Amino acid sequence: MEAKNPIQSAERIFNILELLADKGEMGLLELSEELSLNKSTVHRMLSSLIYMGYAKQNESTQKYALSFKIVNMAGKLLERTNILPIARPYLEALSALSGETVHLVQREGNHILYIDKVEATTGSIRMVSHVGMIHPMYCSGVGKAIMATMSEEAVAQIWHESVIEKKTEHTITDFDAMKNVLESIRKQGYALDNEENELGVRCIAACIYDYHRDVKYAFSISGPVSRMTEEHIQTLSKDVLKVQKELSAELGYRWN
User: Buried b vs exposed e over 16-49: b needs ≥16 C-beta within 10 Å?
Assistant: First the structure.
């Protein structure tokens, strides 16, 4: 049985807030029709929101809109947001699902910093990665996932400021080739590291968006090439994109 809100007036007030957030400035009649409530009820609730500073009325159009008090309140919440406890259940679920090692990183200039790691649940080669490790962006799946969200100018700056070296025979060291790879990432939504940093290890990665539409974090599933086949990666890509969407939403990003 579907649960009901025990306080109907609270539900109605939040419905008004959500509607104004979605559609912007609205008149009393528009609001009452959208909410299927009579105008006197909506007017009473709007008056309460205006009194508390959460809404305002345009004197020239008589329409209502949210005030910046909502933004200020949301900003305070997001400032206190720590991604580690939010992301950890997703990382553990991905590791359990795939049986492989899952990483969470954040961007630090032209590098990535490993901030969490869930070890593989199946027998696996021991990876060199560890929490606290700093790594160049250009030769990792997580780094490329973040770079793919940037402008060509920003990508060029990272590339030219980095020491580009061939860590393995698969490392991309040509800028035009990198630009082509980043374009593919933008189209498919996820990035790959095909033994570019460590021989015998392949990974699939995706970035995480925040409420500013910025990208500071990314995560990956890494495993031996014997298990991380093209077919398996295609299967995992659905789970990776699902986690990307859910984690980004947790950080305040709104998907269109």
Answer: bbebbeeeeebebeebbeeeebeeeebeebbeeb
Nearest to 199 by CA among 168, 178, 228: 168
Whether the CB-CB separation of 4 and 33 falls below 8 Å is answered with: no
Q: What is the DSSP string of 33-66?
A: HHHT--HHHHHHHHHHHHHTTSEEE-TTT--EEE
Chain position carrying tokens 């070890």:
119
DSSP-assigned letter for residue 6 = S
Q: Please report, as a single letter, which amino acid is at residue 5.
A: N
> Do the beta carbons of residue 139 and residue 167 sit within 8 Å?
yes
Other residues' Cβ atoms within 10 Å of the Cβ of residue 91: 22
Predicted confidence at residue 2, as pLDDT, reads 43
Instruction: Report whether 155 contacts 107 (CB < 8 A).
Output: no
Q: What is the mean pLDDT of each run of 10 residues along the chain (256 residues)?
A: 61 89 90 91 92 91 89 65 86 93 92 90 68 88 95 94 91 94 95 90 93 87 91 94 93 77
- 55: DSSP letter: E
Instruction: Determine the pLDDT at residue 239.
Output: 95
Q: What is the pLDDT of residue 76?
A: 66
The full length of the chain comes to 256
Beta bridge partners of 9: none
* Spatial separation of the C-alpha atoms in residues 159 and 149, rounded to whole Å: 15
Do residues 130 and 107 lie in contact, with contact meaning Cβ atoms separated by under 8 Å?
no
Gap between the Cα atoms of 80 and 74, Å rounded: 10
